[in-house]
Amino acid sequence: MVGLIGKSFLTVCAFFGHRDTPISSSLEHHLAEVARNLIVYHHVNEFWLCEQGAFDCLARLVMKELKKEFENIILCLFPAYYPNNAKLDWMYDNDYDLMYPDEVAKAPPQVAILRRNEYIAKNTDYIVCYINHKSGGAYKAVEIARKHDKKIINLAKYI
Q: CA separation (Å) from 75 to 16, 50, 67, 101, 118?
């Protein structure tokens, strides 16, 4: 493989969960352990995070803590809408790379979340999720990932 020596390849994990996921210390613990295992045993080095619901918030907090332990991991925040609101200043935190792919940017506002979730589901290697019912955007995103043969870890099965 000429030309590939010295290049690093990213293995990516994304998070999806219902907006109203019941947050608990048990879920936080399991989420941290799964992420840690992905880093250590599966060489995941980039994590894609969203900004909307309870599970998204928990994933961001857990990954921000793990970044202290694993300084080389990359945390990317994928907003569904271009962040131009002062309430979203936290997105510019130095711990996150802000990602806003063209597929999302060009989407009409009424489908921006769907387009963002589709992009993530198709372009990641692993999905860590909390899905406990068969409806909603998180469920649809995980189904897209499943159709694209992504590795899926559903924490709802363990909590």
A: 15, 11, 8, 15, 19
Question: Could you tell me the CA-to-CA distances from 141 to 14, 86, 93, 126 in Å, in that order?
Answer: 11, 28, 26, 12
The one-digit pLDDT tens for each residue of the chain (159 residues) are 333 444 457 899 999 999 899 999 999 999 999 999 999 999 999 999 998 889 999 999 999 999 999 999 999 999 888 766 545 555 555 677 888 888 888 999 899 999 999 999 999 999 999 999 999 999 999 999 999 999 999 999 988
The domains of the chain, with CATH numbers, are 15-132+146-157 (3.40.50.450)
Q: What is the pTM of this model?
A: 0.88
The pair of structure tokens assigned to 70 is 């694993």
Distances from the Cα of 8 to the Cα of 1, 111, 124, angstroms: 14, 34, 16
Taking a C-beta distance cutoff of 8 angstroms, is the pair 106, 78 a contact? no
Asked whether 75 and 96 are in contact (CB, 8 A), the reply is yes
Are 15 and 55 a contacting pair, CB within 8 Å?
Answer: yes
